[in-house]
Amino acid sequence: MITSLLIANRGEIACRIIRTCRRLGVRAVAVHSTVDRDALHVREADAAFCIGAASPGASYLSIPALIAAARAAGVEAVHPGYGFLSENADFAEACAAAGLIFIGPSPQAIRLMGSKAAAKALMADANVPVVPGWQGAAQDDASLEAAAHALGFPLMIKALAGGGGRGMREVADASGFLAALNACRREAASAFGDDKVLLERLITRPRHIEVQVFGDSHGEVVHLFERDCSLQRRHQKLVEEAPAPGLSGSEREAMALAACAAARAVNYVGAGTVEFIRESDGRFYFMEMNTRLQVEHPVTEMITGLDLVEWQIRIASGEALPRRQADIACTGHAFEFRLCAEDPARGFLPSSGRFSLFDAPAPDAGLRLDSGFAAGDQLPPDYDSMFAKLIVHGATRDEALARARTALSACHISGPATNISFLYALADVPEFRQGGYDTGLFARLGDSLTGAALPDQAPALAAMVVLLAEAAESGAQGSPWALRDGWRLGPPVARTLSFAGQGRTVTMAATPCGDGVWQLAGAGGSWRATGHRRDAHHAAIEINGTQFHVAFTREAATLRLFFDGHDLRFESLARLRWQDDEASAHGSLLAPMPGRIMAQPVEIGAEVEAGTVLVIMEAMKMEHHLRSPHAGTLTALAGAVGDQVEQGRELARVAPRAR
């Protein structure tokens, strides 16, 4: 068997390969760009080589740099992982020319399956069903438009090269064809250096189902069952599961046989995935073949109990397939959720930065987190936004999904924005829970999973996190004069805390009641709260008798709060303040940040309750509702609608209600 290899990749897949190598006694050598110098895969490898600058073209996509690193490391083989050069025939040929084993299929197989037109023709010859379409040589506008009319609308325009959802456009009718064609060409040229396209009949409400196959150099091919990859946003997969829900036994068998026929048609060696598109009536068609290991391979590992990276290494070493088809069994159900550094509330814009907190549930036989990062690591903006994958297994689909929701709620990851709370909400969508979804689910959901209302308890929990942190900080100083628990001669005084976040501003009045108990008043009512910090990032807090376990980070003016699957960000904590004596006496409401007055919904002289909205401000491109800290009479309003006000300016005064 191969005794040493170089991993021509980074992140979680590099770490995944390293861990299998360690178990097999194979020496694993990592490569890294300058920005990945301290990355987790570099720390875990037996050796590591810097191959260039942060730009992928100067490092992970540089064939000369990778070959030079492999030679310097003295390895026998190169594992490309997935992405980057994993489906690049030129790279496979360069490895062979350098006397290195490429852990993947032959360059010929990569080229055949890398061309959508050639692959479709080959599959049709092998009696694998293909989507009706057109893939002629002519690429001028007139020829393509004529072919589109002959095929009929709606249809799909696809780039001949590449994959991953790039270079694809749906066209509903003839009027939008040329604009979509030109957009598809531009994207394909940019992504793959080739603007050629093909046309396919558009399958409405399709499911995306793929079959894992393996072939060896002795001519044998097996399948390891199917996966459903229909949960996609902008053609990018977010959740995968195995086996695919809702298929009959005959459908599964037919897909598996077609996938094995596809692999045999190109004399396939190694791990590959044959992807199908399935119509609602059960008919399915070949879509493409990925000539590499897939991101979602762990769900197949979970239902089969096999290590697919180990299979790749053994097959590349010339060994026969580790098991025959009859010896491969499917047990239970598995899900994979892709954890990405992107902000669902801002249109899924990519995010980057240093991970200040990286909490995840402990792995066991039915749960694992594949990641290339840990707390303190920097997530650079130069590469893919996926930083980890959460994989769960259960005896049934319902059991696996319930476990996934529990695990997602226990993932507290701070620094970059993440999609974890979005995935947690998705796991409770009835169409997904019932397994009857298709690739259009996210389009039908719209913004329903990203515009969730602020949970009722969130402001009180945020306030308690701040109060507990200040108590810990002041207590550490060892002096009673450093305590910030609100003690004073006379009646206790309320403290006003303002949080800007989740699309609005929340104002809380916090009154100390002694023995670590606080009375909190604000939007939605009042709460009696207490709690304790378990460590610098975790607290147990009781709100009106209900216990919450929260995780949090505080960085400059930002509080990140995690509880019950929520990931909430509050700004402006640097502006939290005790009311000064004059403000306390008159119940002043101060501007928590610079902004513009949008509305003053209450007139002077009105009786108000704690939490009544007195002023609406616009700041940080959000609307902030500033609320009365206590019950009483509104005695003054400062400024007028449209005025720009500075931070700390008094905006309203409320005379406390006589007791």
What do these coordinates show?
The chain is α+β, with helices and mostly antiparallel strands and 659 residues long. It folds into four domains: 4-103, Rossmann fold, CATH 3.40.50; 132-201, Dna Ligase, domain 1, CATH 3.30.1490.20; 207-445, D-amino Acid Aminotransferase, Chain A, domain 1, CATH 3.30.470; 458-656, OB fold (Dihydrolipoamide Acetyltransferase, E2P), CATH 2.40.50.100. The protein has 17 helices and 39 strands. The protein has an eight-stranded antiparallel beta sheet, sandwiched between helices. Strands 24-25-26-27-28-29-30-31 form an eight-stranded antiparallel beta barrel. A five-stranded parallel beta sheet has the order 3-2-1-4-5. The radius of gyration is 29 Å and the shape is elongated. Residues 573-585 have low confidence and may be disordered.
- The stretches of 5 or more residues where confidence is low (pLDDT under 50) are 573-585
What name does CATH use for the topology of the largest domain?
A: D-amino Acid Aminotransferase, Chain A, domain 1
The backbone outline, from C-alpha atoms, is: elongated
Helix content: 25-40%
Write the layout of secondary structure elements.
Elements: E1 4-7, H1 11-24, E2 27-33, H2 40-44, E3 47-52, H3 63-73, E4 77-79, H4 89-97, E5 101-102, H5 107-114, H6 116-125, E6 133-134, H7 141-151, E7 155-159, E8 168-171, H8 177-192, E9 197-201, E10 207-215, E11 221-233, E12 236-242, H9 249-265, E13 270-278, E14 284-290, H10 297-304, H11 308-316, E15 333-340, E16 342-343, E17 349-350, E18 353-354, E19 357-359, E20 367-371, E21 378-379, E22 386-394, H12 397-409, E23 412-414, H13 420-426, H14 430-433, H15 441-445, H16 458-476, E24 495-501, E25 504-514, E26 517-522, E27 525-535, E28 538-543, E29 546-555, E30 558-563, E31 566-571, H17 581-586, E32 588-590, E33 595-599, E34 607-608, E35 613-619, E36 622-627, E37 632-637, E38 644-645, E39 650-656
Helix pairs in contact: 4-5, 12-13
